[in-house]
Amino acid sequence: MKLYQVDAFTSSLFAGNPAAVVPLERWPDDALLQNIAMENNLSETAFLVPDETGYALRWFTPSVEVDLCGHATLAAAWVVFNALGFPGERIRFNTASGALYVDRSGQTLSLDFPARPAQPLSNREPFEQALGIPLKDVLQARDTLVVLDSAEQVRNFQPDFTAIGKLDTFAIMITAPGDDCDFVSRFFAPAKGVPEDPVTGSAHCTLVPYWAERLGKPSLHARQLSARGGELHCTLKGDRVTLSGQARCFLKGDILL
Which of 63, 7, 4 is nearest to 31 (CA)? Predict the structure, then answer.
């Protein structure tokens, strides 16, 4: 099996979010896919197989399969366009979240993803206790959206991964207005094998509808304030979200089984 490691949502190596991408001719056992993801020990490993309309695409953390992942989709698209010689400018990926499209314009790749608006959460006490900081608002989609007052709070937040991992949610994202962009965020999923994700496309399926409504504009410039950092240009289009960024390939290799 060929393997590629691609830094997504960045134009520079050693930034953005690294994802492994493994192109396949057919699906092996799920246990093998999970073991490869565990061995890679990145937040996501993407596996893709050609089908009638494009590619079937699946994503695995080191411990579980997930239903949506942005940065690994961007990385998979980079591999299809640049390593597999795809001739067009739009790829269709068939996934657990339906058909996802990636468009190429020069070095920029744009993901067409479903919007996942969050609803207010009435019981915020467990989140206040686990995070240990004042929360401006708490909302729930697949992940829990926690709103803080300032980008500085997001940047300086020190997570207790044990406490966060015990919360009844897939993941936690914290967010606030940006000081040099529209909004900032960080993303934590310790119970799913991802203590802090460097740049999280799927989180922006929830963040973008929230900030588009709050700021009164559909096009937004976002930064994820992880140690590696990431930058996304986002647009809300009805019930879809467009996430645009670049990617750089760090590694090409072979998996020996």
Answer: 63
CA dihedral 33, 34, 35, 40 (to 10 degrees): 90
Report how far residue 13's alpha carbon sits from residue 8's, in angstroms, rounded to the nearest whole number.
9
- Strands 194-197 and 65-66, by their bridges, are unpaired
44 is catalytic: yes
User: What is the model's pLDDT at position 50?
Assistant: 98
Token pair listed for 72? 């690994």
The string of DSSP codes covering 151-172 is HHHHHH----HHHHHTSSSS-E
What's the one-letter identity of residue 92? Answer: R
Spatial separation of the C-alpha atoms in residues 222 and 183, rounded to whole Å: 5
Which pLDDT value is given to residue 135?
A: 96
Q: Do residues 157 and 173 lie in contact, with contact meaning Cβ atoms separated by under 8 Å?
A: no
- Quote the pLDDT of residue 81: 98
**φ, ψ (nearest 5 deg) of residue 190:** -65, -30
Segments in the chain below pLDDT 50: none
- Which distant-in-sequence residues (6+ apart) come within 8 Å of 141 by Cβ? 116, 117, 118, 119, 205, 206
Among the listed residues 25, 39, 44, 65, the single catalytic one is 44
- 139, amino acid identity: L
